[in-house]
Design goal:
The protein has helices spanning 3-26, 30-113, 118-123, 127-132, 160-169, 175-182, 196-205, 238-322, 331-362, 374-391, 411-428, 475-479, 486-496, and strands at residues 137-143, 150-156, 186-188, 209-217, 220-229, 370-373, 395-400, 406-409, 434-442, 445-452, 500-506, 510-518. It has 13 helices and 12 strands. The radius of gyration is 60 Å and the shape is elongated. The protein folds into 4 domains: 3-36; 115-236, GAF domain (Beta-Lactamase); 269-365, Helix Hairpins; 367-518, Heat Shock Protein 90 (2-Layer Sandwich). The longest helix is centred in the middle third of the chain and has 85 residues, at 238-322. The protein is of the alpha+beta class and 527 residues long. The strands form 3 sheets. The chain has a 5-stranded antiparallel beta sheet with strand order 2-1-5-4-3, sandwiched between helices.
Length: 527
Protein backbone atom coordinates (compact mmCIF):
# COMPACT_ATOMS: atom_id res chain seq x y z
CA UNK A 1 0.00 0.00 0.00
CA UNK A 2 1.20 3.49 -0.88
CA UNK A 3 1.81 6.24 1.66
CA UNK A 4 -1.12 8.31 0.29
CA UNK A 5 -3.64 5.44 0.65
CA UNK A 6 -2.43 4.72 4.15
CA UNK A 7 -3.06 8.32 5.25
CA UNK A 8 -6.57 8.33 3.73
CA UNK A 9 -7.40 5.05 5.44
CA UNK A 10 -6.23 6.36 8.84
CA UNK A 11 -8.23 9.58 8.34
CA UNK A 12 -11.42 7.61 7.48
CA UNK A 13 -10.99 5.43 10.55
CA UNK A 14 -10.56 8.44 12.78
CA UNK A 15 -13.64 10.17 11.29
CA UNK A 16 -15.79 7.07 11.84
CA UNK A 17 -14.67 6.78 15.45
CA UNK A 18 -15.33 10.50 16.00
CA UNK A 19 -18.85 10.19 14.42
CA UNK A 20 -19.85 7.38 16.74
CA UNK A 21 -18.56 9.23 19.72
CA UNK A 22 -20.31 12.50 18.82
CA UNK A 23 -23.65 10.77 18.10
CA UNK A 24 -23.67 9.41 21.61
CA UNK A 25 -22.91 12.77 23.18
CA UNK A 26 -24.62 15.39 21.02
CA UNK A 27 -27.46 13.54 19.51
CA UNK A 28 -29.11 15.37 16.56
CA UNK A 29 -26.36 17.99 16.30
CA UNK A 30 -23.67 15.45 15.85
CA UNK A 31 -24.14 15.07 12.07
CA UNK A 32 -23.49 18.73 11.24
CA UNK A 33 -20.48 18.87 13.51
CA UNK A 34 -19.20 15.68 12.03
CA UNK A 35 -19.30 17.07 8.51
CA UNK A 36 -17.25 20.07 9.63
CA UNK A 37 -14.75 17.83 11.36
CA UNK A 38 -14.45 15.59 8.28
CA UNK A 39 -13.85 18.60 6.05
CA UNK A 40 -11.21 19.90 8.42
CA UNK A 41 -9.61 16.48 8.65
CA UNK A 42 -9.51 16.03 4.92
CA UNK A 43 -8.07 19.53 4.48
CA UNK A 44 -5.36 18.87 7.01
CA UNK A 45 -4.72 15.48 5.44
CA UNK A 46 -4.45 17.05 1.99
CA UNK A 47 -1.97 19.65 3.19
CA UNK A 48 0.05 16.99 4.92
CA UNK A 49 0.04 14.77 1.86
CA UNK A 50 1.15 17.69 -0.33
CA UNK A 51 4.05 18.40 2.06
CA UNK A 52 4.99 14.71 2.12
CA UNK A 53 4.95 14.58 -1.69
CA UNK A 54 7.10 17.71 -1.87
CA UNK A 55 9.60 16.20 0.54
CA UNK A 56 9.65 12.96 -1.46
CA UNK A 57 10.22 14.95 -4.64
CA UNK A 58 13.15 16.83 -3.09
CA UNK A 59 14.61 13.62 -1.72
CA UNK A 60 14.30 12.02 -5.16
CA UNK A 61 16.01 14.99 -6.84
CA UNK A 62 18.94 14.87 -4.36
CA UNK A 63 19.23 11.12 -4.80
CA UNK A 64 19.08 11.48 -8.58
CA UNK A 65 21.77 14.18 -8.53
CA UNK A 66 24.03 12.03 -6.39
CA UNK A 67 23.35 9.09 -8.64
CA UNK A 68 24.10 11.22 -11.71
CA UNK A 69 27.39 12.46 -10.16
CA UNK A 70 28.35 8.90 -9.24
CA UNK A 71 27.59 7.80 -12.80
CA UNK A 72 29.65 10.65 -14.24
CA UNK A 73 32.57 9.76 -11.97
CA UNK A 74 32.33 6.10 -12.94
CA UNK A 75 32.16 7.14 -16.60
CA UNK A 76 35.28 9.27 -16.28
CA UNK A 77 37.14 6.45 -14.50
CA UNK A 78 36.07 4.02 -17.21
CA UNK A 79 37.25 6.41 -19.92
CA UNK A 80 40.56 6.88 -18.07
CA UNK A 81 41.00 3.12 -17.80
CA UNK A 82 40.32 2.77 -21.51
CA UNK A 83 42.75 5.58 -22.36
CA UNK A 84 45.41 4.07 -20.08
CA UNK A 85 44.90 0.65 -21.66
CA UNK A 86 45.19 2.16 -25.13
CA UNK A 87 48.32 4.06 -24.10
CA UNK A 88 49.85 0.89 -22.59
CA UNK A 89 49.05 -1.01 -25.77
CA UNK A 90 50.64 1.72 -27.87
CA UNK A 91 53.70 1.83 -25.60
CA UNK A 92 53.98 -1.97 -25.73
CA UNK A 93 53.74 -1.89 -29.52
CA UNK A 94 56.42 0.79 -29.73
CA UNK A 95 58.61 -1.16 -27.30
CA UNK A 96 58.12 -4.39 -29.29
CA UNK A 97 58.94 -2.50 -32.48
CA UNK A 98 62.09 -1.02 -30.95
CA UNK A 99 63.26 -4.39 -29.58
CA UNK A 100 62.63 -6.00 -32.97
CA UNK A 101 64.47 -3.10 -34.64
CA UNK A 102 67.49 -3.43 -32.35
CA UNK A 103 67.62 -7.19 -32.92
CA UNK A 104 67.41 -6.64 -36.68
CA UNK A 105 70.16 -3.99 -36.51
CA UNK A 106 72.34 -6.41 -34.54
CA UNK A 107 72.05 -8.98 -37.33
CA UNK A 108 72.64 -6.30 -39.95
CA UNK A 109 75.71 -4.98 -38.11
CA UNK A 110 77.16 -8.48 -37.97
CA UNK A 111 76.72 -8.86 -41.74
CA UNK A 112 78.29 -5.43 -42.38
CA UNK A 113 81.32 -6.25 -40.21
CA UNK A 114 81.92 -9.48 -42.14
CA UNK A 115 82.90 -7.67 -45.35
CA UNK A 116 85.59 -5.18 -46.33
CA UNK A 117 84.11 -4.38 -49.75
CA UNK A 118 82.13 -1.12 -49.73
CA UNK A 119 79.69 -2.43 -52.36
CA UNK A 120 79.05 -5.51 -50.23
CA UNK A 121 78.40 -3.21 -47.25
CA UNK A 122 75.48 -1.66 -49.16
CA UNK A 123 74.23 -5.05 -50.37
CA UNK A 124 74.24 -6.41 -46.80
CA UNK A 125 71.09 -4.33 -46.16
CA UNK A 126 68.57 -6.98 -47.22
CA UNK A 127 64.89 -6.45 -48.08
CA UNK A 128 63.69 -8.60 -45.18
CA UNK A 129 65.68 -6.43 -42.73
CA UNK A 130 63.86 -3.31 -43.92
CA UNK A 131 60.46 -5.01 -43.73
CA UNK A 132 61.23 -6.27 -40.23
CA UNK A 133 61.96 -2.70 -39.21
CA UNK A 134 58.45 -1.83 -40.38
CA UNK A 135 59.22 0.00 -43.63
CA UNK A 136 58.37 -0.55 -47.28
CA UNK A 137 61.08 1.46 -49.05
CA UNK A 138 64.77 2.10 -48.45
CA UNK A 139 67.37 4.19 -50.30
CA UNK A 140 71.07 4.97 -49.71
CA UNK A 141 72.49 8.03 -51.46
CA UNK A 142 76.29 8.55 -51.36
CA UNK A 143 78.30 11.58 -52.48
CA UNK A 144 81.09 10.43 -54.85
CA UNK A 145 84.48 11.71 -53.62
CA UNK A 146 85.85 12.41 -57.10
CA UNK A 147 82.83 13.58 -59.12
CA UNK A 148 81.04 15.21 -56.16
CA UNK A 149 77.78 13.80 -57.52
CA UNK A 150 75.09 11.94 -55.57
CA UNK A 151 74.72 8.26 -56.43
CA UNK A 152 72.01 5.72 -55.49
CA UNK A 153 74.02 2.87 -53.98
CA UNK A 154 71.25 0.67 -52.56
CA UNK A 155 67.48 0.70 -52.99
CA UNK A 156 64.65 -1.52 -51.79
CA UNK A 157 60.98 -1.22 -52.73
CA UNK A 158 61.66 0.95 -55.79
CA UNK A 159 61.16 -0.18 -59.37
CA UNK A 160 63.88 0.31 -61.97
CA UNK A 161 61.73 2.99 -63.54
CA UNK A 162 61.46 4.78 -60.19
CA UNK A 163 65.23 4.65 -59.68
CA UNK A 164 65.92 5.94 -63.21
CA UNK A 165 63.69 8.92 -62.50
CA UNK A 166 65.31 9.50 -59.11
CA UNK A 167 68.80 9.39 -60.66
CA UNK A 168 67.74 12.00 -63.21
CA UNK A 169 66.23 14.34 -60.64
CA UNK A 170 68.68 13.81 -57.79
CA UNK A 171 71.14 16.38 -59.15
CA UNK A 172 68.51 18.71 -60.57
CA UNK A 173 66.78 19.46 -57.28
CA UNK A 174 69.00 20.87 -54.50
CA UNK A 175 67.03 19.32 -51.66
CA UNK A 176 69.29 16.35 -50.93
CA UNK A 177 72.52 18.37 -50.89
CA UNK A 178 70.80 21.01 -48.73
CA UNK A 179 69.84 18.30 -46.23
CA UNK A 180 73.46 17.09 -46.21
CA UNK A 181 74.65 20.64 -45.53
CA UNK A 182 72.10 21.02 -42.73
CA UNK A 183 73.16 17.68 -41.21
CA UNK A 184 69.90 17.06 -39.30
CA UNK A 185 67.40 14.18 -39.55
CA UNK A 186 64.03 14.88 -41.21
CA UNK A 187 60.75 13.26 -40.12
CA UNK A 188 57.58 13.49 -42.24
CA UNK A 189 54.63 11.74 -40.58
CA UNK A 190 51.87 13.03 -42.91
CA UNK A 191 52.04 14.85 -46.25
CA UNK A 192 49.49 17.43 -45.03
CA UNK A 193 51.92 18.85 -42.46
CA UNK A 194 55.07 18.61 -44.63
CA UNK A 195 57.06 21.56 -45.96
CA UNK A 196 57.24 22.23 -49.68
CA UNK A 197 60.71 20.61 -49.89
CA UNK A 198 59.48 17.55 -47.99
CA UNK A 199 56.42 17.27 -50.24
CA UNK A 200 58.59 17.38 -53.37
CA UNK A 201 60.89 14.69 -51.98
CA UNK A 202 57.86 12.57 -51.04
CA UNK A 203 56.40 12.94 -54.53
CA UNK A 204 59.71 12.02 -56.18
CA UNK A 205 60.19 8.94 -53.97
CA UNK A 206 56.45 8.09 -53.83
CA UNK A 207 56.45 8.15 -50.03
CA UNK A 208 53.66 9.44 -47.79
CA UNK A 209 55.70 9.26 -44.58
CA UNK A 210 59.47 8.98 -44.42
CA UNK A 211 62.69 9.66 -42.48
CA UNK A 212 65.94 11.09 -43.87
CA UNK A 213 69.08 10.55 -41.76
CA UNK A 214 72.60 11.76 -42.73
CA UNK A 215 75.54 9.30 -42.83
CA UNK A 216 78.51 10.73 -40.92
CA UNK A 217 82.06 9.57 -41.59
CA UNK A 218 84.60 11.21 -39.26
CA UNK A 219 82.26 14.17 -38.70
CA UNK A 220 81.79 14.58 -42.46
CA UNK A 221 78.45 13.79 -44.11
CA UNK A 222 79.05 11.39 -47.00
CA UNK A 223 75.47 10.42 -47.80
CA UNK A 224 71.84 9.99 -46.74
CA UNK A 225 69.55 7.14 -45.72
CA UNK A 226 65.90 7.57 -46.81
CA UNK A 227 63.40 5.11 -45.41
CA UNK A 228 59.61 5.19 -45.27
CA UNK A 229 56.22 3.93 -46.37
CA UNK A 230 53.95 4.55 -49.32
CA UNK A 231 50.90 3.22 -47.50
CA UNK A 232 48.63 5.76 -45.78
CA UNK A 233 48.17 3.47 -42.78
CA UNK A 234 51.89 2.84 -42.10
CA UNK A 235 53.37 5.99 -40.69
CA UNK A 236 56.86 6.64 -39.36
CA UNK A 237 57.28 8.07 -35.85
CA UNK A 238 59.92 9.95 -33.88
CA UNK A 239 60.95 6.67 -32.27
CA UNK A 240 62.03 5.40 -35.70
CA UNK A 241 64.69 8.15 -36.00
CA UNK A 242 66.81 6.52 -33.29
CA UNK A 243 66.71 3.14 -35.04
CA UNK A 244 67.57 4.61 -38.45
CA UNK A 245 70.38 6.70 -36.90
CA UNK A 246 71.93 3.47 -35.55
CA UNK A 247 71.59 1.95 -39.04
CA UNK A 248 73.33 5.02 -40.53
CA UNK A 249 76.21 4.62 -38.03
CA UNK A 250 76.58 0.93 -38.91
CA UNK A 251 76.75 1.70 -42.63
CA UNK A 252 79.23 4.53 -41.96
CA UNK A 253 81.42 2.14 -39.95
CA UNK A 254 81.25 -0.40 -42.78
CA UNK A 255 82.29 2.26 -45.31
CA UNK A 256 85.17 3.35 -43.06
CA UNK A 257 86.36 -0.24 -42.55
CA UNK A 258 86.22 -0.87 -46.30
CA UNK A 259 88.20 2.26 -47.09
CA UNK A 260 90.80 1.46 -44.42
CA UNK A 261 91.11 -2.10 -45.75
CA UNK A 262 91.51 -0.80 -49.28
CA UNK A 263 94.20 1.66 -48.14
CA UNK A 264 95.92 -1.13 -46.21
CA UNK A 265 95.75 -3.44 -49.23
CA UNK A 266 97.24 -0.78 -51.52
CA UNK A 267 99.93 -0.02 -48.94
CA UNK A 268 100.68 -3.72 -48.66
CA UNK A 269 100.88 -4.07 -52.44
CA UNK A 270 103.12 -1.02 -52.67
CA UNK A 271 105.30 -2.27 -49.82
CA UNK A 272 105.49 -5.73 -51.37
CA UNK A 273 106.51 -4.18 -54.68
CA UNK A 274 109.16 -2.09 -52.95
CA UNK A 275 110.41 -5.13 -51.04
CA UNK A 276 110.65 -7.10 -54.29
CA UNK A 277 112.53 -4.23 -55.93
CA UNK A 278 114.84 -3.86 -52.93
CA UNK A 279 115.31 -7.64 -52.80
CA UNK A 280 116.30 -7.65 -56.46
CA UNK A 281 118.63 -4.72 -55.86
CA UNK A 282 120.14 -6.47 -52.81
CA UNK A 283 120.48 -9.70 -54.80
CA UNK A 284 122.23 -7.81 -57.59
CA UNK A 285 124.41 -6.00 -55.04
CA UNK A 286 125.13 -9.29 -53.29
CA UNK A 287 126.09 -10.92 -56.55
CA UNK A 288 128.29 -7.95 -57.33
CA UNK A 289 129.89 -8.17 -53.87
CA UNK A 290 130.45 -11.87 -54.35
CA UNK A 291 132.02 -11.18 -57.74
CA UNK A 292 134.23 -8.42 -56.30
CA UNK A 293 135.12 -10.61 -53.33
CA UNK A 294 136.04 -13.40 -55.69
CA UNK A 295 138.16 -11.00 -57.71
CA UNK A 296 139.75 -9.75 -54.49
CA UNK A 297 140.47 -13.30 -53.30
CA UNK A 298 141.92 -14.26 -56.65
CA UNK A 299 143.97 -11.06 -56.71
CA UNK A 300 145.23 -11.61 -53.14
CA UNK A 301 146.07 -15.24 -53.94
CA UNK A 302 147.87 -14.24 -57.13
CA UNK A 303 149.81 -11.44 -55.42
CA UNK A 304 150.64 -13.70 -52.47
CA UNK A 305 151.96 -16.40 -54.77
CA UNK A 306 153.93 -13.85 -56.75
CA UNK A 307 155.39 -12.42 -53.51
CA UNK A 308 156.20 -15.81 -52.07
CA UNK A 309 158.87 -16.67 -54.63
CA UNK A 310 160.99 -13.49 -54.29
CA UNK A 311 160.37 -13.51 -50.52
CA UNK A 312 161.75 -17.05 -50.29
CA UNK A 313 164.81 -15.87 -52.23
CA UNK A 314 165.23 -12.85 -49.92
CA UNK A 315 165.03 -15.05 -46.82
CA UNK A 316 167.48 -17.52 -48.38
CA UNK A 317 170.00 -14.83 -49.24
CA UNK A 318 169.56 -13.24 -45.80
CA UNK A 319 170.26 -16.61 -44.20
CA UNK A 320 173.39 -17.09 -46.38
CA UNK A 321 174.63 -13.61 -45.48
CA UNK A 322 173.86 -14.17 -41.79
CA UNK A 323 175.91 -17.41 -41.77
CA UNK A 324 178.90 -15.58 -43.32
CA UNK A 325 179.08 -17.79 -46.38
CA UNK A 326 179.71 -14.74 -48.52
CA UNK A 327 182.20 -13.26 -46.12
CA UNK A 328 182.27 -11.97 -42.59
CA UNK A 329 179.74 -9.22 -41.73
CA UNK A 330 180.27 -6.25 -39.52
CA UNK A 331 177.99 -5.98 -36.49
CA UNK A 332 176.00 -3.24 -38.26
CA UNK A 333 175.64 -5.39 -41.39
CA UNK A 334 174.62 -8.41 -39.33
CA UNK A 335 171.92 -6.38 -37.50
CA UNK A 336 170.49 -5.21 -40.83
CA UNK A 337 170.52 -8.73 -42.27
CA UNK A 338 168.67 -9.97 -39.16
CA UNK A 339 166.13 -7.14 -39.62
CA UNK A 340 165.65 -8.27 -43.24
CA UNK A 341 165.08 -11.84 -42.07
CA UNK A 342 162.63 -10.71 -39.30
CA UNK A 343 160.57 -8.56 -41.64
CA UNK A 344 160.63 -11.29 -44.26
CA UNK A 345 159.20 -13.70 -41.67
CA UNK A 346 156.42 -11.22 -40.78
CA UNK A 347 155.67 -10.72 -44.47
CA UNK A 348 155.60 -14.48 -45.01
CA UNK A 349 153.11 -14.82 -42.14
CA UNK A 350 150.94 -12.07 -43.66
CA UNK A 351 151.04 -13.83 -47.05
CA UNK A 352 150.11 -17.17 -45.48
CA UNK A 353 147.20 -15.60 -43.57
CA UNK A 354 145.95 -13.91 -46.73
CA UNK A 355 146.21 -17.16 -48.65
CA UNK A 356 144.35 -19.08 -45.93
CA UNK A 357 141.55 -16.50 -45.81
CA UNK A 358 141.31 -16.53 -49.57
CA UNK A 359 141.16 -20.33 -49.65
CA UNK A 360 138.49 -20.51 -46.92
CA UNK A 361 136.34 -17.88 -48.66
CA UNK A 362 136.60 -19.65 -51.99
CA UNK A 363 136.00 -23.07 -50.39
CA UNK A 364 139.26 -24.39 -51.77
CA UNK A 365 140.91 -25.03 -48.40
CA UNK A 366 141.03 -28.64 -47.33
CA UNK A 367 139.15 -29.16 -44.00
CA UNK A 368 139.92 -32.61 -42.63
CA UNK A 369 137.51 -32.82 -39.73
CA UNK A 370 138.10 -35.95 -37.67
CA UNK A 371 138.22 -37.08 -34.06
CA UNK A 372 141.37 -35.70 -32.41
CA UNK A 373 142.83 -35.91 -28.92
CA UNK A 374 141.98 -32.82 -26.92
CA UNK A 375 144.87 -33.50 -24.52
CA UNK A 376 147.43 -33.70 -27.32
CA UNK A 377 146.02 -30.58 -29.01
CA UNK A 378 146.24 -28.50 -25.81
CA UNK A 379 149.75 -29.82 -25.02
CA UNK A 380 151.00 -28.67 -28.45
CA UNK A 381 149.33 -25.28 -28.02
CA UNK A 382 150.61 -24.67 -24.47
CA UNK A 383 154.14 -25.79 -25.40
CA UNK A 384 154.18 -22.97 -27.95
CA UNK A 385 152.35 -20.35 -25.83
CA UNK A 386 153.83 -20.92 -22.36
CA UNK A 387 157.27 -19.37 -23.12
CA UNK A 388 155.56 -16.12 -24.21
CA UNK A 389 153.39 -16.15 -21.06
CA UNK A 390 156.36 -16.82 -18.79
CA UNK A 391 158.19 -13.79 -20.18
CA UNK A 392 155.39 -11.57 -18.77
CA UNK A 393 154.77 -13.76 -15.71
CA UNK A 394 151.18 -14.44 -16.88
CA UNK A 395 149.35 -17.36 -15.27
CA UNK A 396 147.46 -19.72 -17.62
CA UNK A 397 144.69 -21.86 -16.09
CA UNK A 398 143.15 -24.74 -18.05
CA UNK A 399 139.84 -26.35 -17.07
CA UNK A 400 138.26 -29.21 -19.06
CA UNK A 401 134.76 -30.23 -17.94
CA UNK A 402 132.36 -33.07 -18.75
CA UNK A 403 135.24 -35.56 -19.02
CA UNK A 404 136.06 -34.44 -22.56
CA UNK A 405 138.78 -36.55 -24.16
CA UNK A 406 138.36 -35.90 -27.88
CA UNK A 407 136.73 -33.39 -30.24
CA UNK A 408 135.86 -33.41 -33.95
CA UNK A 409 137.92 -30.78 -35.77
CA UNK A 410 140.68 -30.09 -38.29
CA UNK A 411 143.74 -30.38 -36.08
CA UNK A 412 145.93 -27.72 -37.73
CA UNK A 413 143.22 -25.13 -38.22
CA UNK A 414 141.63 -25.43 -34.77
CA UNK A 415 145.15 -25.27 -33.28
CA UNK A 416 145.64 -22.01 -35.18
CA UNK A 417 142.44 -20.57 -33.66
CA UNK A 418 143.70 -21.33 -30.12
CA UNK A 419 147.16 -19.91 -30.87
CA UNK A 420 145.82 -16.68 -32.41
CA UNK A 421 143.39 -15.99 -29.54
CA UNK A 422 145.92 -16.92 -26.84
CA UNK A 423 148.61 -14.86 -28.60
CA UNK A 424 146.34 -11.80 -28.48
CA UNK A 425 145.49 -12.51 -24.82
CA UNK A 426 149.19 -12.56 -23.88
CA UNK A 427 149.85 -9.48 -26.03
CA UNK A 428 147.15 -7.35 -24.35
CA UNK A 429 147.44 -8.65 -20.78
CA UNK A 430 149.83 -6.75 -18.45
CA UNK A 431 152.59 -8.62 -16.55
CA UNK A 432 151.36 -10.82 -13.67
CA UNK A 433 147.96 -11.14 -15.30
CA UNK A 434 145.87 -14.25 -15.78
CA UNK A 435 144.42 -16.22 -18.70
CA UNK A 436 141.67 -18.83 -18.14
CA UNK A 437 140.86 -21.54 -20.69
CA UNK A 438 137.58 -23.41 -20.18
CA UNK A 439 136.31 -26.20 -22.46
CA UNK A 440 132.94 -27.94 -21.87
CA UNK A 441 129.80 -29.33 -23.52
CA UNK A 442 126.85 -27.03 -24.31
CA UNK A 443 123.87 -28.85 -25.81
CA UNK A 444 125.17 -30.48 -29.00
CA UNK A 445 128.30 -28.30 -29.18
CA UNK A 446 131.73 -28.07 -27.62
CA UNK A 447 132.29 -24.60 -26.20
CA UNK A 448 135.61 -22.92 -25.48
CA UNK A 449 135.98 -19.71 -23.40
CA UNK A 450 139.36 -17.92 -23.32
CA UNK A 451 139.35 -15.06 -20.80
CA UNK A 452 142.11 -12.64 -19.87
CA UNK A 453 142.65 -9.77 -17.43
CA UNK A 454 143.99 -7.48 -20.14
CA UNK A 455 143.17 -3.94 -21.22
CA UNK A 456 139.83 -4.91 -22.80
CA UNK A 457 138.19 -3.67 -25.99
CA UNK A 458 136.27 -0.41 -26.41
CA UNK A 459 132.49 -0.93 -27.02
CA UNK A 460 132.65 0.83 -30.39
CA UNK A 461 135.39 -1.58 -31.55
CA UNK A 462 133.57 -4.81 -30.64
CA UNK A 463 131.41 -5.02 -33.83
CA UNK A 464 134.54 -4.65 -36.01
CA UNK A 465 136.85 -6.96 -34.08
CA UNK A 466 136.57 -9.86 -36.60
CA UNK A 467 136.91 -7.60 -39.66
CA UNK A 468 139.92 -8.12 -41.91
CA UNK A 469 142.81 -5.70 -41.28
CA UNK A 470 141.02 -4.09 -38.32
CA UNK A 471 143.25 -3.15 -35.40
CA UNK A 472 141.86 -1.44 -32.31
CA UNK A 473 143.37 1.93 -31.49
CA UNK A 474 145.31 1.41 -28.22
CA UNK A 475 148.89 1.99 -27.01
CA UNK A 476 149.90 -1.66 -27.44
CA UNK A 477 148.76 -1.79 -31.08
CA UNK A 478 150.50 1.49 -31.78
CA UNK A 479 153.73 0.09 -30.30
CA UNK A 480 153.58 -3.42 -31.81
CA UNK A 481 152.74 -3.90 -35.46
CA UNK A 482 150.34 -6.56 -36.71
CA UNK A 483 148.37 -7.58 -39.79
CA UNK A 484 144.84 -7.40 -38.36
CA UNK A 485 144.09 -10.77 -39.95
CA UNK A 486 144.42 -13.16 -37.00
CA UNK A 487 140.89 -12.85 -35.56
CA UNK A 488 139.31 -12.67 -39.01
CA UNK A 489 141.05 -15.94 -39.86
CA UNK A 490 139.80 -17.46 -36.55
CA UNK A 491 136.20 -16.53 -37.43
CA UNK A 492 136.44 -18.09 -40.88
CA UNK A 493 138.01 -21.30 -39.52
CA UNK A 494 135.31 -21.68 -36.81
CA UNK A 495 132.53 -21.01 -39.35
CA UNK A 496 134.13 -23.56 -41.70
CA UNK A 497 133.62 -26.03 -38.80
CA UNK A 498 129.88 -25.05 -38.80
CA UNK A 499 130.47 -23.17 -35.56
CA UNK A 500 130.22 -19.64 -34.21
CA UNK A 501 132.62 -17.23 -32.48
CA UNK A 502 131.94 -14.06 -30.46
CA UNK A 503 133.56 -11.73 -27.94
CA UNK A 504 132.59 -10.03 -24.66
CA UNK A 505 134.77 -7.34 -23.18
CA UNK A 506 134.86 -4.59 -20.58
CA UNK A 507 137.35 -1.82 -21.22
CA UNK A 508 140.07 -1.88 -18.55
CA UNK A 509 138.98 -5.23 -17.07
CA UNK A 510 139.53 -7.91 -19.68
CA UNK A 511 138.16 -9.83 -22.62
CA UNK A 512 136.54 -13.23 -23.22
CA UNK A 513 136.59 -14.89 -26.62
CA UNK A 514 134.12 -17.79 -26.98
CA UNK A 515 133.54 -20.21 -29.81
CA UNK A 516 131.50 -23.37 -30.35
CA UNK A 517 131.89 -26.22 -32.81
CA UNK A 518 129.59 -29.27 -33.22
CA UNK A 519 130.27 -32.12 -30.82
CA UNK A 520 129.87 -34.47 -33.80
CA UNK A 521 130.69 -33.72 -37.45
CA UNK A 522 127.08 -34.25 -38.65
CA UNK A 523 125.77 -31.50 -36.33
CA UNK A 524 126.15 -28.53 -38.63
CA UNK A 525 123.43 -26.16 -37.32
CA UNK A 526 124.80 -23.26 -35.26
CA UNK A 527 122.63 -21.94 -32.43
Amino acid sequence: MSTKATILFITAVLCTVASIFLNQILGPYAGELMRIIILIAFFITSVWMIEIEERKRKVSEVAFEKLRQAYNELDEQAKMIVRTDLQLNKTQQELDKKINGLYTLHELGRNINMTFDVEEVFKSVKENFIHRLGFEKFLIIILDEETKKLECKRYIGFSEEDISKIKEKIEEIPHFKNIMKEGKPILVERPEVATQMEKEIGELLKLRSFIIVPIYLKEIIVGLIIIGNESLFSRVTEGDIEIISILANQIAQGIENSRLYEQLWHSHQELELRVKERTKELARANEELKRLNQIKSEFVAAVAHELRTPLTSIKGYASILSMGKLGELTPEQKERVERIDRHSTELAKLINDLLDISRIESGKIGMEIKEISLTQLLKDILDLINPQAEEKNIEINLKIKDNLQTIFADYDHIRRVFINILGNAIKFTPPKGRIDISIYKEDSFIRTDISDTGIGIAPEDLPKIFTEFFRADNPINREKKGTGLGLSLCKKIVEAHKGKIWVDSTLGKGTTFSFIIPAKPELTVVK
